[in-house]
Amino acid sequence: MSTKVTKNEALDYHKVPNPGKVAIATTTRLESQRDLSLAYSPGVAFPCEEIKEDPELAYEYTSKRNLVAVISNGTAVLGLGDIGALASKPVMEGKAVLFKKFAAVDSFDIEVDETDIDKFCEVVKAISPTFGGINLEDIKAPECFEIERRLIDELNIPVMHDDQHGTAIITTAALMNAAEMMNKNVEDMKVVVVGAGASAISCSTMYKELGVKNLIMCDSKGVIHSGRDNLNKYKKDFMIDEALTMEEAFTDADMVLGLSRPGTFTKEHVALMAEEPIVFTLANPTPELFPEEVREVKPKAIIGTGRSDFPNQVNNVLGFPFIFRGALDVQTRKINMTMKMAAAKAIANLAKEPLYAELKVEFGDLSYGKEYIIPVPFDKRLMVEVSAAVANAAYETGVARIKEFNLEAYREKLSLMV
């Protein structure tokens, strides 16, 4: 089935039968005067009083326990750039749709018309009591790093900038499986990251956590090294001592991760890499190099893109709905590295499982191999495997509010939801 759409099709999709993609539905009965008395005055006063005495009871008496805010200021919308808060609303509504459809998580999209870090954080903090979690989206670097850090430190609900960590989690899962196929230990791999924005920084951080030691990051001015005087504090964490050229960086490299724009590295660069390299060209919608260009110089490469019309699509929907599902269900205060790594491992392991019949009808007889190193987004097992792994990691690392957690019972509950 073709995934290509026309402008008119997309515009019609967003306005027919009603404008936008999300709406609110009630979850309780309201059919009589008695129902009205329970839902509103006077009955509503009782849960209000309970929550006043114990704020944690908001998780029992309100929708907070299953509600995520999708928040953006529209300064770095994928493929569109700084288009402003209001113009970003269709994207944020889309994120809300994905939360609901893939993981049964309710969400409100909130577009904040503010680029000042202090003011933006003040707005988010002020509205945070409404929500059980906050998904930051499409906020430009380097501001996004400081915004996320502040909100994580100052709020007691999970906050995650998906542009950073979603991409990191999915590409880490892909790296795990690709390295295994190539019979390579990540500790011995030479990894080149082209791009130094939010997702590139987060991916590189997670790769280091995984065990990658030899990582070379490049921005628009070349390799990031200690001799440069034009680096922000986030790039400095990844500078190397030697002032390498791009060609030297690519020589014998085992992997390149492209998170930049078309043409930032070339076939000639890829030709310098190891014989069987891992090449993730994730610029979207046009990758740095198309898969056929990579294969011209490295026919044995494992290739991933951000597009749905090529194998190994690195799609954040493999992660964020299920990460928040698990985080909400154990009422976490944070999303930590252990939880993110647990999600990556769960995603990687699921790719090794045979496809069930429904998926085979849609995607063909895919099996674990170079063109199938991460699951497809519509694999319903993702909710069970990823959410359970995240919830368990939260509980074991002490960031969950719940006092008792039965992993098998939770997996069964998730299976019934699917």
Largest sheet: 6 strands, mixed
Total beta strands:
10
Low-pLDDT segments, ≥5 res: none
H/E element order: HHHHEHEHEHEHEHEEHHEHEHEHHHHH
Mean pLDDT score, rounded? 96
Give an account of the 3D structure.
By secondary structure, the protein is of the alpha/beta class. The chain has 3 domains: 7-157, Rossmann fold; 166-305, 3-Layer(aba) Sandwich (Rossmann fold), CATH 3.40.50; 316-417, Rossmann fold, CATH 3.40.50.720. The chain contains 18 helices and 10 strands. The protein has a 6-stranded mixed beta sheet. Helix 14 (320-329) packs across helix 17 (381-396). The radius of gyration is 22 Å and the shape is globular.
Outline:
The chain is α/β, with parallel strands linked by helices. The chain has helices spanning 7-15, 33-39, 45-53, 58-61, 89-103, 117-127, 143-154, 162-181, 198-210, 233-236, 246-250, 267-271, 291-297, 320-329, 337-350, 357-363, 381-396, 407-417, and strands at residues 67-72, 106-111, 133-136, 159-161, 190-194, 214-219, 222-223, 255-258, 278-281, 302-305. The chain has three domains: 7-157, 3-Layer(aba) Sandwich (Rossmann fold), CATH 3.40.50.10380; 166-305, Rossmann fold; 316-417, Rossmann fold (3-Layer(aba) Sandwich), CATH 3.40.50.720.
